[in-house]
Design goal:
This protein is α/β, with parallel strands linked by helices. Helix content is 32%, strand content 21%. The strands form 9 sheets. Strands 4-3-15-14-16-17-18 form a 7-stranded mixed beta sheet, sandwiched between helices. Helix 5 crosses helix 6 and helix 14 packs across helix 16. The longest helix is centred in the first third of the chain and has 17 residues.
């Protein structure tokens, strides 16, 4: 792994001085960031009660305390006695005369059409849509599905739903009927805001038949609000709701523990898990991270293309709008009409903060000539999240695409809102690493007994409750407790493998259920994949372990070659195997290396290693609702069958 000192990013004096977290250090009267981080863990009550002031969180009634553990540490009651609606903190920017000339949300569609609202216009649009929802009887506690591509309407809809006290259930715009029903039915959704369709790679995707099939199978669904053209006569036009005259009513008053979102994440088997996020949890954590880790504030332009159906959609929206920055949305394929799209998007809107999943970064790097088109000189900071990233592509993204801007690696998940681990721009950043645990989160790496590890692969754990954690799964406390709290009683076990170096940096090593144990030695799949991706001929890689009578498990590696490569496949497979053995040791030499055209991925671009492993071990594939490319399964099954026919 390329973690040489020469590859470490170091902040300049100016970057450190101008970082917003530096102002926080001084406001707390502390010496440096490390002292602030220690204070956040030793005195979380003082830290968070001061943080909500520094962030300008708007309360209708101030909280009496930081937290109550009356229901136990697994079910904390954050900021008891308080009353707020998190959208009021967004609207304070909309109502600030100094923001009159700043764009609040900008939406670019795949065909190049651009729509935008200033901050005052955004505030008016949210209040009008909220009045329209109320006029139709939608309010406190009602569950409302949101199935629409990202953009102005999605932003206004989500904010207005929280404004009236409803609970939004986000849905990925590429879901089929079964996946949508499995997420709407458990929460008894009564209203669905849906798009009639959108364009991908120049082709119209019609969602009306999908939504109508959902309506036939869900008796609880009473209303459909359609965004788009050719609205079915049985539904309500989004524009009609948006045209409602403001009713003058304030945002619904909510307890910090009242839900505003139930967002589903796929399990390896069984039904999806509905993480519950509240007004006093998720938004406060994201506003905190946006300042501490991303250095976002008024005048910044924030773009991290994400679908509203995943946690990143609400996270990105909140990062920008809770901090008074301009939110830039993009609805379309990131490589359409070619790989220059993202660079030109940055140039067109003067983006200062740009985020990308590692899969997209690898695609950009493989098409560098086009990817580097467009003036990206406005970029001040880059973000990557969603899965592990190898050092080589981390360095490429930071130096080539970002022109040397700091790259913040960020990891949390649907169940934890924002970061468990991330980086700050006041400390050196190692390629593919995280230079800090997020302040207020007591995160570490532990062995099977819960003992702290340094320099060894272990479980990523959190040793005490933290602001932003899910308030359980929707009507399923037992599954929530089983998932996170019962492996090591009293400790949140996140399900990821990680390493903590002696200098305090962290590195992710993949999911716990992807752990490799070859010849009695344990390592994460990301460690193997990083080594494979050091080869210039390899574009993507996935490593899995399958049962072996001799070693316990044997290592299989699946690779996608770089575009235009035309060498000998058998020789490349042998080169990959030898390279892994040279770098990691002979016990870890892959038993087989398979060249494939695609790997199974989620719609947020994560490689689904468990699917590959289940194909190879003839197990049921489990929940595939998040799978974006079903053709990958057919190809992998064909490769497996071919291998077995040879060895039979």
């Amino acid at each position: 792994m390329s973690r040489d000192d020469k590859d470490i990013w170091h902040p300049s004096h100016r970057q450190a001085e101008e970082a917003q977290v530096t102002a926080w250090v001084r406001a707390f009267g502390l010496a440096d960031y490390d002292a602030l981080h220690r204070h956040s863990l030793e005195r979380p009550d003082d830290y968070w009660m001061r943080v909500i002031n520094e962030l300008g969180i708007v309360w209708s009634r101030r909280p009496d305390a930081y937290v109550s553990f009356d229901r136990g540490p697994e079910f904390p009651d954050w900021f008891p006695g308080g009353e707020l609606n998190w959208v009021d903190t967004v609207l304070r920017w909309c109502d600030d005369p100094r923001m009159a000339g700043q764009r609040g949300v900008v939406a670019e569609q795949e065909d190049g059409t651009v729509q935008w609202l200033s901050y005052p216009e955004l505030g008016e649009a949210v209040r009008r849509f909220a009045a329209g929802l109320r006029a139709r009887g939608i309010g406190h506690g009602d569950r409302v599905g949101l199935l629409t591509e990202n953009g102005v309407e999605a932003t206004v809809s989500l904010l207005a739903l929280a404004y009236v006290g409803a609970i939004v259930v986000p849905l990925f715009s590429g879901f089929g009927a079964d996946a949508i029903i499995s997420r709407l039915k458990p929460s008894a959704v009564s209203t669905l805001i849906a798009t009639t369709g959108f364009h991908r790679r120049g082709r119209r995707v019609d969602l009306v038949p999908v939504v109508e099939e959902v309506a036939r199978q869900l008796p609880s669904l009473q209303h459909i609000i359609w965004k788009g053209t050719d609205v079915p006569s049985s539904g309500i036009d989004w524009q009609e709701v948006a045209a409602t005259t403001e009713d003058g009513l304030p945002a619904e008053r909510m307890s910090p523990s009242d839900p505003f979102m139930v967002i589903y994440t796929s399990g390896t088997t069984g039904k999806p898990k509905g993480a519950v996020h509240t007004h006093g949890g998720f938004p406060l954590k994201i506003a905190h991270d946006s300042l501490v880790h991303f250095n976002v504030g008024p005048g910044k332009v924030y773009c991290w293309p994400a679908d509203m159906g995943w946690i990143a959609g609400t996270l990105v929206l909140s990062c920008a709008l809770l901090r008074g920055a301009t939110l830039v949305c993009y609805d379309g394929a990131p490589d359409y009409p070619d790989w220059s799209r993202m660079g030109r998007l940055v140039a067109r809107h003067g983006v200062t903060h740009y985020g990308s999943a590692p899969t997209l970064i690898r695609g950009l790097a493989a098409n560098e000539a086009l990817a580097l088109a467009g003036d990206r000189s406005t970029v001040e900071l880059l973000i990557t999240a969603g899965e592990g990233i190898d050092p080589e592509h981390f360095i490429w993204f930071q130096r080539r695409f970002g022109g040397g801007a700091p790259l913040i690696n960020y990891t949390g998940g649907t169940e934890v809102s924002g970061a468990l681990l991330s980086s700050v721009v006041v400390k050196p950043i190692r390629p593919s690493g995280f230079n800090t645990g997020s302040p207020g989160v007591d995160v570490g790496v532990a062995d099977a007994g819960g003992n702290a590890l340094v320099g060894e692969v272990g479980e990523l754990v959190v040793r005490s409750p933290f602001v932003g954690m899910t308030h359980s799964f929707w009507q399923d406390d037992e599954r929530y407790l089983d998932s996170y709290w019962r492996t090591l009683p009293g400790i949140w076990v996140h399900g990821d493998l990680a390493v903590r170096d002696r200098d305090g940096s962290f590195f992710m090593m993949g999911r716990s259920d992807d752990t490799l144990k070859v010849a009695g030695k344990r390592l994460g799949p990301a460690e193997v994949e990083e080594v494979v991706l050091e080869l210039e001929t390899v574009s993507e890689a996935a490593a899995i372990g399958v049962p072996d009578a001799t070693k316990g498990e044997k290592l299989l590696v699946f690779i996608i070659i770089m575009p235009g490569w035309a060498g000998d496949g058998a020789q490349l497979a042998d080169q990959v195997a030898r390279h892994v053995a040279d770098r990691l040791g002979k016990p870890f030499k892959p038993s087989r290396v398979h060249l494939v055209r695609q790997l199974p991925k989620t719609r947020s671009s994560k490689v689904m290693r468990r699917v590959i492993k289940r194909i190879w071990t003839d197990q049921p594939l489990g929940d595939l609702s998040a799978l974006d490319n079903p053709g990958a399964i057919e190809e992998l099954e064909a490769v497996r069958n071919a291998e077995r026919s040879i060895t039979a």
